[in-house]
Amino acid sequence: MSKVKVAINGYGTIGKRVADAVSQQDDMEIIGISKTRPNYEAWVAVDRGYAIYAPAEKIDAMNKGGITVAGSVEDMVGSAEIVVDCTPGGIGEKNKALYEKAGIKAIWQGGEEHELAGCSFNASSNYEEALGRDFVRVVSCNTTGLCRVISPLDREFGVKKVRATLMRRAADPGDIKKGPINAIVPNPIKLPSHHGPDVKTVMPHIDIVSIAVKLPTTLMHLHALNAELDKDCSAEDVKDLFAKQPRIRFVGQGISSTAEIMELGKDMRRPRGDMWENCIWDESITIYEGELYFFQGIHQESDVIPENIDAIRAMMELESDGARSIAKTNKAMGI
Ligand code: NAD
To answer: Do the Cβ atoms of 109 and 138 come closer than 8 Å?
Structure first.
């Protein structure tokens, strides 16, 4: 069987990781990535053997910077079957006409609005909804982290309501322009935050309200979750359920912070030290007066990467069963 031809438009934090994850699968391949500047990431892409494309007006600058460009972004999408748009939030929507003109399928990331694709995706929550679709949006890192715990809880016990407090990293580690560097910022101040409604784009029936703050850290997000469930259950029941989920990892063994989780990722020789799973402190899982509480760490740079792979597989109808796609992706990536 020939491999599905995938293009990556926007080769930054998310794009470079999706490209590497696609390359690890046996049913899809990278036919090109697009870069706007001849920086260190472009050099690594060359080293990885990816064909480099650029927006037409940037090709000269790329060539002058020593990066041989194979063609324009239009050329790239013209030779792909599906494009994963990993440009910054708000830029991706401008590319929709280009993808429609080329007649190819497209995946956008969480920085775009749900309406752009009409289908917001999380593999363990609504894989079937993306089967054969032309346009899909893989929800943000925080929403992915929330969906991965809410959907099994809902299937097993029924979710009456979720209340989530998100303590968000201020910037990614390589981002030198954002802050704060010495403050805690309620973000947004006007409540609730957009994360609860974003979960509803995947699971419309869930009653969820979220609030969020930005912290001077770059490593991970930390979620404090509280849920009321329909059926009575114990903390052990919830632990047993989470232990069976393919993208949940329990952390303990002396790990008491997001910093130590990231250190674990590096010690495990994960690429870039990535921690693709939700990292739940199993010790924190508590039922108090009938309600569930726990903490989880979410590695913002990487948790959406396997979800993009599953979205490609669903849209290209390479696999009709979500659990089988998740297992295949996990095996290829080493999750
Ligand atoms: P990024 O800034 O790290 O990377 C974006 C890349 O796109 C850069 O290399 C930039 O040069 C390139 N680019 C900009 N304009 C372009 C254009 N017109 N054509 C082609 N390339 C262009 O951004 P990111 O963090 O990877 O975010 C990408 C998307 O993923 C956003 O929607 C974001 O909300 C979402 N997302 C980000 C994170 C995260 O923590 N970084 C997590 C989950 C989802």
So the answer is: yes
**Domain architecture of the chain: domains with CATH:** 4-139+304-333 (3.40.50.720), 141-298 (3.30.360.10)
Q: Look up 279 and say whether it is catalytic.
A: no
Tokens found for residue 273: 């030290």
> Percent of the chain, pLDDT > 70?
100
Angle at 245 between CA 149 and CA 275, to 5 degrees: 80
The CB of 308 under 6 Å from ligand 1? The reply is no
Report yes or no: 198 and 166 within 8 Å, Cβ to Cβ.
no
Strand order across the 105-108 sheet: 71-72, 52-54, 28-34, 4-9, 82-85, 105-108, 135-138, 120-121
- Rounded to the nearest angstrom, the distance between the alpha carbon of 317 and the centre of ligand 1 is 26
3-state secondary structure of 242: helix
Check pocket membership of 140 for ligand 1, CB cut-off 6 A.
Answer: yes
173 lines ligand 1 (CB under 6 A): no
Q: Please report the pLDDT score of residue 253 as a whole number.
A: 85
- Residue in 73, 33, 80, 76 with CA at minimum distance from that of residue 56: 73
What separation in Å is there between the alpha carbon of 140 and the centre of ligand 1?
A: 12
Give the Å distance between the CA of 268 and the centre of ligand 1: 26
Q: What secondary structure does DSSP assign to 138-186, as a single string?
A: EPPHHHHHHHHHHHHHHHHH-EEEEEEEEEEESS-TT--S---SS--EE
Determine the average pLDDT of the residues in 215-241: 98
Question: How long a stretch of residues is the chain?
Answer: 335
Alpha carbon nearest to ligand 1 atom 44, residue: 140
- Provide the whole-model pTM: 0.98
